[in-house]
Design a protein that fits this description.
Helix content is 33%, strand content 25%. It is of the alpha/beta class.
């Protein structure tokens, strides 16, 4: 059996914790997918579900595109967002809607080898399905999905609207690992370096990043990332099973290991690992709404600051959400 390339030996910990969520997520997976190619018109932006096919890899790449319109006639930044394991392109729409209302386009990529379909099928094979999804081949394919989706947008009808100097990679959980790979993480497998940096990516938003598989020291993997990065987690961002644990310390190690001086860390006092998704499973309504609102505002302030806006916007955010934040680090 091949060892998963981008998760540490504690992958069984994460996997077992995901199994605890199976009853909830299997139920949500029964909701029919939204019709393809439907355009949702909102005040100031449109939302499209697009089903793309990467012929070179023989792989489907469904996406949800949030595109500002109306008053936002100039070129706009673009966020390429990667979901966590077992989720889909519609798992983080609150961010897409918020960014689009504020003049930022976002492209939410669905990774077919590690998406919501994992919850379907024989429950006795769920563990093996997640093993494959967390394996090296899928981790590399996810980066390819991001790259292909970005190609399609820039080369298609929306390309003239996108500012190619302001492209941000973002992701939650497994999607945060995907984002770090696109941003320049470098791993070595069987004596061979794997480096999948996309030079078009000039900033990254990393939400609840799991540890990479490898040594205890993440610096050799992550120190080559020198673009601006925003790291978001919570003090309760913890996976627990008897005898094992993975918590916020892993997220902090990722933050510490990333190179460059332009990095920001926000740790909320409350909220579980899934508080950053559209759904509310284990958090109170108040906590869920507070964390999401703060994350929306912080991500937008980070995008603005990464591309030259006054850093006062970031300082104002920390003051405004002081009661919610356990730790905040910014240049």
């Amino acid at each position: 059996m091949n060892v998963p390339a981008f998760l540490r030996r504690r992958r069984w910990l994460a996997l077992s914790s995901l199994l605890l969520l199976a009853p909830v997520l299997v139920a949500s997976s029964r909701v029919p997918d939204a019709p393809m190619a439907v355009v949702e018109r909102h005040a100031g932006y449109d939302v499209r579900d697009l089903d793309w096919q990467d012929g070179a890899r023989g792989r489907a790449v469904p996406v949800k595109l949030f595109m500002p319109t109306g008053a936002h006639r100039g070129k706009v930044p673009l966020v390429v967002f990667s979901h966590g394991i077992g989720s889909a392109r519609d798992g983080y729409t609150y961010l897409g809607h918020y960014w689009a209302r504020h003049g930022v386009a976002s492209l939410h990529v669905q990774h077919v080898g590690s998406d919501r379909a994992l919850w379907r099928g024989n429950p006795l094979q769920l563990v093996s399905r997640f093993q494959r999804a967390a394996g090296e081949a899928e981790a590399i394919a996810r980066v390819g999905d991001q790259r292909f989706a970005l190609d399609q947008v820039l080369q298609g009808e929306w390309g003239a609207r996108i500012d190619s100097a302001r492209i941000v990679a973002a992701g939650h959980s497994y999607g945060a690992n995907t984002t770090l790979m696109s941003a320049g993480a470098r791993v070595v497998r069987h004596g061979r370096p794997i480096w999948l940096r996309d030079p078009r990516i000039s900033a990254a938003i990393v939400i609840s990043a799991p540890p990479f598989y490898g040594d205890e020291d993440f610096r050799p993997i992550l120190r080559g990332i020198t673009i601006p990065t925003l790291h978001v987690t919570t003090a309760d961002d913890i996976i627990r099973i008897p005898g094992f644990g993975s918590g916020v310390d892993d997220r902090l190690k990722v933050f510490d290991a990333v190179g460059g001086a332009r990095k920001v860390l926000a740790v909320y006092k409350h909220g579980t690992h899934n508080v950053f998704t559209d759904h509310r499973y284990f958090d109170s309504r108040a906590v869920s709404e507070q964390v999401k609102q703060a994350t929306e505002e912080l991500s937008l302030a980070f995008i603005d600051t990464a591309y030259g806006a006054n850093p006062q916007e970031m300082r104002d955010w920390s003051t405004r959400h002081h009661d919610l934040v356990a730790r905040y680090v910014a240049p």
